[in-house]
Structures are given as structure tokens and as C-alpha cells.
């Protein structure tokens, strides 16, 4: 009998608009809470990337230097655009991943095919969802970087966003769109794909009885561990573009097309420069990703949203 005849049809949940609303709200809340809470780490990381005075400093010494020179309040610079930007981006990313994953599984047509091509499904769903989410994020991320990198640029989100819009217009607000895609798409791939495979690896080494009898503490530990590993992967994959994004938004680099500017800045920075600040960012991203998945699952459950489509290999 052929493989096609043996293929088991998928029972794919039919998510309703209310379900997608729950996915969006859960993603929005988990991302804005986690990114907002990580603002002090992000401020120090950005300074190390773009301020020559911070280049030789590590995370702890950089934090001390910042507080000594600008006061403790400087650690919360850019909190407004961070919270609002990731509210929009997080909702679109998580709801989008659920939507595109389900869509690609539907295209696969049966369980055997979906499981066989699950890596492509994870990669495709994460990439497409992130692309649309970044349309919402880019102007607010540009505002945040200006606030963090240029002391006195503006007093907060509204004044910073207004100044950037009036001085640079749409072209300046979206100047970082290409590099932000180069940063966020690898980030999303690391976040979702590695998390999926960590869960798959763990479940593959469990009996059905163990899976069904997992305690809440065990489930929490699995989600936390998977999220931390996924966070490390997301940080490493996206860090060179994150460094270039900070440079672009501060106005560094030659004039010309975005690809030319990115290439020139990359050559100037070198491998060591592109990975400047990676240590603090790995810590930050591990915390971000793991906390996001834990909060996302918890909020989804509280809202009564259905579970995601699973295509793990048994």
C-alpha cells in the first residue's frame, strides 16, 4: 500500500476570530511585559554597541558607568516605545505564528507530510508572522534607539516619536526596516523553531503514561528550559543585525542604499564588533523568550483559548 494511502488525515482545529483575538492579546501582553521589564539591560546593551565610551566595558561595569554619569533613571530610557512597540509586535507575531503554522499544516494535507516538513513549517510560519509584525514595530524601535543613544533627544515616547516623524518623515522612521527584518526574522526562527524541537526532544524520550501524568512543576520546568535554550539561539542568530540596526538608527554609516550601508557598517565592525554586547543580550533574550512562552501559555489558558497545532515527530 502506498504512503499516501497510509497517511493519516489531520484533525486541524478551526480557530475562530475570538481564538485569534485571544492569541493576539496573550502575545501582546507577554511581549510588552517581558520587553518592558528588560529595558535596563537593553539600555546598557545598546550603549555598548554604539557608544565608544562603553565599548571596552562589560555589562556590570557598563551599568555602573551609566548610573554614575546619568543617574539610575537612565536605565529606564526608552521604556515607553519599548512597551508600546512590543505590545503591537508581540500580538501580531504570536497570533501570526498560530495562523501561518495552521495554514501550512493545512496545505500539507496529512499528518505524515506535515511531520516530515515540520522544520519548513516552523521556519515559514515564524518568518511570515515576523515580517508583518515588524511593520508595526519598526517606527517605535527607531524611536527607542534614538532615546537611548542620544541623551536629551526627547522626554518620552510621544515627543520622541513626533520629533522623529517631523524631522525624518516615513523614510527615516522605516530606515531600519530591512535591518530589523534581518534581526527579527532570525530571532523569531530561533525562538519558535528551537522551542518546538526542545519540546519534541523531551516528549520523544517520555512514555505516553509519563506525558499524561506530568505535574505542573514538570511542565513549568520543560517550558522554562526550552525557552532558555530558544532564547540563546535567538540571540546568537540575530545579534549581528541587532548591532547594525543600532548603528543605522543613530545615523552611522555612509549614504546610499540600505544594503550598501549595511555592508559597509558590517565590514567596518568586523566579526568582533558585530557580536559586541552579545553576553548581556544572551542573558536578556533567554529571560525574554522563556518568560514570554510561560506567560503566553498561562494567558491563553486563562482566556480559554485552544491549544496550538502540534506536529512533533513521535
- Topology as a string of helices (H) and strands (E): HHHHHHHHHHHHH
Structural class: mainly alpha
What's the β-strand tally?
A: 0
Rounded to an integer, what's the Rg over CA atoms? 21 Å
Q: Bin the strand percentage.
A: under 5%
State mean pLDDT (0 to 100 scale): 88
Number of helices: 13
Rounded to the nearest angstrom, the distance between the terminal CA atoms is 22 Å
Q: Largest beta sheet, briefly? A: none
Overall 3D shape = globular
Question: Can you put this structure into words, describing what you see?
Answer:
It is a multi-pass membrane protein. It comes from Lentinula detonsa. This is Mitochondrial carrier domain-containing protein. By secondary structure, this protein is mostly helical. The chain is built from 13 helices and no strands. It has helices at residues 3-6, 17-37, 39-50, 59-70, 79-108, 111-116, 118-149, 157-173, 177-204, 208-212, 216-249, 258-274, 278-303. The chain is globular. 44% of the residues are buried. Mean pLDDT is 88; it is low at 1-9.
Amino acid at each position: 500500500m502506498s504512503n499516501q494511502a497510509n497517511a493519516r488525515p489531520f484533525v486541524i482545529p478551526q480557530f475562530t476570530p475570538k481564538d485569534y483575538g485571544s492569541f493576539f492579546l496573550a502575545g501582546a501582553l507577554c511581549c510588552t511585559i517581558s520587553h518592558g521589564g528588560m529595558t535596563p539591560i537593553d539600555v546598557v546593551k545598546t550603549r555598548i554597541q554604539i557608544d565608544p565610551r562603553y565599548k571596552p566595558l562589560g555589562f556590570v561595569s557598563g551599568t555602573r558607568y551609566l548610573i554614575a554619569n546619568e543617574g539610575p533613571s537612565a536605565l529606564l530610557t526608552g521604556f515607553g516605545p519599548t512597551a508600546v512597540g512590543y505590545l503591537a509586535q508581540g500580538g501580531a507575531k504570536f497570533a501570526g505564528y498560530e495562523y501561518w503554522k495552521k495554514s501550512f499544516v493545512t496545505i500539507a494535507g496529512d499528518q505524515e507530510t506535515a511531520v516530515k516538513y515540520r522544520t519548513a513549517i516552523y521556519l515559514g510560519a515564524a518568518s511570515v508572522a515576523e515580517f508583518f509584525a515588524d511593520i508595526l514595530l519598526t517606527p517605535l524601535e527607531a524611536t527607542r534607539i534614538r532615546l537611548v543613544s542620544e541623551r536629551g533627544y526627547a522626554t518620552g515616547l510621544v515627543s520622541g516619536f513626533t520629533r522623529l516623524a517631523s524631522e525624518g518623515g516615513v523614510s527615516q522612521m522605516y530606515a531600519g526596516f530591512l535591518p530589523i527584518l534581518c534581526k527579527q526574522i532570525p530571532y523569531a526562527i530561533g525562538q519558535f523553531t528551537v522551542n518546538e524541537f526542545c519540546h519534541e526532544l523531551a516528549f520523544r524520550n517520555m512514555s505516553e503514561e509519563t506525558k499524561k501524568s506530568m505535574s505542573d512543576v514538570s511542565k513549568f520546568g520543560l517550558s522554562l528550559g526550552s525557552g532558555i535554550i530558544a532564547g540563546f539561539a535567538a540571540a546568537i542568530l540575530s545579534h549581528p543585525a541587532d548591532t547594525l540596526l543600532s548603528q543605522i538608527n543613530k545615523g552611522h554609516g555612509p549614504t546610499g542604499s540600505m544594503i550598501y550601508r549595511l555592508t559597509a557598517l558590517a565590514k567596518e565592525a568586523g566579526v568582533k564588533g558585530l557580536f559586541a554586547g552579545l553576553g548581556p543580550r544572551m542573558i536578556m533574550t533567554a529571560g525574554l523568550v522563556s518568560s514570554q512562552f510561560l506567560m503566553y501559555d498561562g494567558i491563553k489558558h486563562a482566556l480559554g483559548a485552544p491549544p496550538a497545532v502540534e506536529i512533533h515527530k513521535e
